[in-house]
């Protein structure tokens, strides 16, 4: 292909049983992460758990009439949830190195191993420090899994299905949240050790991931990046299901040759030409968390108790939101490669801001420091939460992982995605650590706080987020960044070697 012409958008491929199995087994990393997100809020609302580890919170809960919004406000209780994300933040940089040195597949295996050990320690905990150690091990597993799985899926997927395949990760996150909600609903009546069952079962998806990885092939990009070109070509043939893969092989090979020239990818990330994907990757994580979604998913049982549901009813309400979360993610799978990324994100901003403002308005007018909402208004809050979760599940949830995984060039891909993962974990930590205190101090105004962020997110999409639908992953610089009215100012001039293949 001569200079100035474009490489093909679609390379030859068939969807085989083997490659679908690879997608599903790798996406089990999302199941681990989702189960942990869903299990935390339910466990922290269980009386048996609070009596054993947080008796002061339990006493405050018994006197909830003193202040409806503040009965769960305890920094140590929040640390139980949020410590995982600090560990994941640090671990993501180690995972980046592991992905580059050993490959995506071994990194996924390590993620599952850390998670299994964390589940065992958490289930057997007799002291608060054991809980925190378990959470840290969970966090290392999440850091390794969230770094490696989206990269694996984006690199193994054919370009015309890359969005849908990558969103399998988010789909399994939502399924994990739903399973956790069902488990919490069941174990809430298993006194006094129901919480142990909830935490211990976190090891089950890790076991599936660990043994499932034994059947996965490494990504062709990872193999060729490490000099294993023959194995890379064979892996490409295996996952594409066709014999003629030369055009795609040559594109990956050229990307790998360019990547080998970069000895210090983290330094390369700091250069002007690396700023567009890096800024986008980090801002996607900031905005994903400041939609308020994890405040709702972490603490859905607590939130529903605050507006007047009984303990069992609040857990059941969390099951309902989890079901909506799973179903709505399928919308993204079937539409992201047709409609594109930007349309889904913008539509969701409108729906989310309406829901947040409505929830905030209802609570501001009707829920005081004492008392509860009447049954009709409480049910309306649940409906609005479901509508909010619905829009997030087909937009900012999956696309927050998809877009950073597909926009970095190979030479900075694992390093850049490590910044995305660590940013996600940091801001998840901030929300997890601060939400209950914010709820206590801001009360209903917390929903207006998140609404303001959603407005900023919409402006970000309109002016700064390019469309990446249908663009091969190794030619993003030429097709996306150098043509964007804002980001092209950051890019080096001249065609890339890949574009001249």
TrEMBL record:
<comment type="similarity">
    <text>Belongs to the major facilitator superfamily. Sugar transporter (TC 2.A.1.1) family.</text>
</comment>
<feature type="transmembrane region" description="Helical">
    <location>
        <begin position="278"/>
        <end position="301"/>
    </location>
</feature>
<protein>
    <recommendedName>
        <fullName>Major facilitator superfamily (MFS) profile domain-containing protein</fullName>
    </recommendedName>
</protein>
<keyword id="KW-0769">Symport</keyword>
<feature type="transmembrane region" description="Helical">
    <location>
        <begin position="377"/>
        <end position="403"/>
    </location>
</feature>
<feature type="transmembrane region" description="Helical">
    <location>
        <begin position="165"/>
        <end position="185"/>
    </location>
</feature>
<dbReference type="InterPro" id="IPR005829">
    <property type="entry name" value="Sugar_transporter_CS"/>
</dbReference>
<dbReference type="InterPro" id="IPR005828">
    <property type="entry name" value="MFS_sugar_transport-like"/>
</dbReference>
<feature type="transmembrane region" description="Helical">
    <location>
        <begin position="197"/>
        <end position="216"/>
    </location>
</feature>
<dbReference type="InterPro" id="IPR020846">
    <property type="entry name" value="MFS_dom"/>
</dbReference>
<dbReference type="InterPro" id="IPR036259">
    <property type="entry name" value="MFS_trans_sf"/>
</dbReference>
<feature type="transmembrane region" description="Helical">
    <location>
        <begin position="313"/>
        <end position="333"/>
    </location>
</feature>
<keyword id="KW-0812">Transmembrane</keyword>
<feature type="transmembrane region" description="Helical">
    <location>
        <begin position="442"/>
        <end position="465"/>
    </location>
</feature>
<dbReference type="InterPro" id="IPR045262">
    <property type="entry name" value="STP/PLT_plant"/>
</dbReference>
<feature type="transmembrane region" description="Helical">
    <location>
        <begin position="107"/>
        <end position="126"/>
    </location>
</feature>
<keyword id="KW-0472">Membrane</keyword>
<feature type="transmembrane region" description="Helical">
    <location>
        <begin position="415"/>
        <end position="436"/>
    </location>
</feature>
<dbReference type="InterPro" id="IPR003663">
    <property type="entry name" value="Sugar/inositol_transpt"/>
</dbReference>
<comment type="similarity">
    <text>Belongs to the major facilitator superfamily. Phosphate:H(+) symporter (TC 2.A.1.9) family.</text>
</comment>
<dbReference type="Pfam" id="PF00083">
    <property type="entry name" value="Sugar_tr"/>
</dbReference>
<dbReference type="InterPro" id="IPR044778">
    <property type="entry name" value="MFS_STP/MST-like_plant"/>
</dbReference>
<feature type="transmembrane region" description="Helical">
    <location>
        <begin position="132"/>
        <end position="153"/>
    </location>
</feature>
<feature type="transmembrane region" description="Helical">
    <location>
        <begin position="345"/>
        <end position="365"/>
    </location>
</feature>
<feature type="transmembrane region" description="Helical">
    <location>
        <begin position="16"/>
        <end position="35"/>
    </location>
</feature>
<feature type="transmembrane region" description="Helical">
    <location>
        <begin position="76"/>
        <end position="95"/>
    </location>
</feature>
<dbReference type="GO" id="GO:0016020">
    <property type="term" value="C:membrane"/>
</dbReference>
<feature type="domain" description="Major facilitator superfamily (MFS) profile">
    <location>
        <begin position="22"/>
        <end position="469"/>
    </location>
</feature>
<dbReference type="GO" id="GO:0015293">
    <property type="term" value="F:symporter activity"/>
</dbReference>
<keyword id="KW-1133">Transmembrane helix</keyword>
<keyword id="KW-0813">Transport</keyword>
<keyword id="KW-0762">Sugar transport</keyword>
